[in-house]
Amino acid sequence: MSTPTPLSSTPAGKHALVYGGSITGLIAVGVLSHHFEHVTFVERDRFEHGPRVRKGVPQAAHAHILLTRGLNILGEVFPGFREDLKAAGALILDMTEHHAWCMGGVWLPRGRIGLDFTCQSRPLLEWVIRQRIQALPNVTVRDGSEVTGFQTSADKARVTGVRLQAPGGGEEELLEAELVVDASGRGSRTPQWLEALGYSRVEETLIQVDVVYASRVYQRPRGFEPGWEMMSLSPRLPEQRKFGNIQRIEGDRWLVALGGWLGEGPSATNEADFLEFARNLPEPHLYEALRHAEPLGPIHHYRFSHNQRRHYERMPRFPEGLAVVGDALCSFNPIYGQGMTTGALQAHALGEHLRQGLDGVAQRYRRHVGQLLAAAWSMAATGDLRIPEVEGKRPPGFALMNWYGDRFQRLATQDPETLRTFMGVVHMVESPAAMASPRRLLEVLTARPGSDARKHAPKPMAIASNQAV
To answer: Number of folded domains in the chain?
Structure first.
């Protein structure tokens, strides 16, 4: 594990504003605090003290992980962040030592690989970051306020601030800023507001996946030591479409998620149906664990209709003084766990461009972030588009890409270096191009992957016997 290098401060301007209390929005506030004399953070919800589910985060009751790259960026923005997160009760785990992962019917080998990720509830993660934000002397938090539109220069070539209002109406307030950052999520109104200012409508790419999943918190059984802290059962697309995940979170609890593509998720909210869905997964391990666990709350459902990417980089004209981050820019199928880390990469990229000065930062950032998102979007889209019923444009050589990817993953179960490369790409510390380097290409094409798909599987009977007393 490398120690993150704290961000250095590079003055760029007097005042910046971020609206939207998403994880990406919080990280963006932290980044901008290094570059502006003052930063205002605006959120429609009222923030409560402590880790609480907010109305504006409908997916808050479901699983969220930070991949290695995202965790490292947070450590750069907020020195000591790892320690804060662990002190709050979160787990920081090694991706293959603590994670039992069955991918497409093949269990990945276990053992330390040096790539960390976090396990905790979404409210806890948000609370830890927000405490760091609220402690910054140059940040003002304006919760309970809603952005209702942009303020611009007379020629509308620059966003110079926003109009604020209490949710539900009331007197508007103008708040000026040299840089406005939209972190308001999938429902961002930036496309409509720009169009009203005379800009062209931003192009959007949508991939309909209709992912449905349900989550529930359980008390981890006393004395239960299966040798993993997180277990993932990923389907062999397109033949299988259901998945299951169980991860240990703060309070010695389990957060369990069950779901599937094209609506094949749990359809009811009762315990019997939830367990039956787990029992019908291709592998028995998750069900065997749940049979002996005590539910601690209701079953929460969530439906994700489509991947959504807004191509601001393609717009012929775009105003200065504006940047779009997080789900407001690109929203992925949450099953792949890329969202928060990709958002952290965007906030980090914005900070890097601010080091070159405030002038032209909106243009530099939007073009760079379009390239930055290409790899993560391709990874998510490639998986979803394997299902014939999912509508979307398949790239040239799509079938060949899938064939190669399957062989690469199978080889990763036998070769430590191939596994390390694969996990490096998953955690966004390596480019996907690393999987197609001349050396890797030769190894994948000439290898004869073994057929022992269950070689690294946990033993269900051992798990079942460790019942709570």
So the answer is: 1
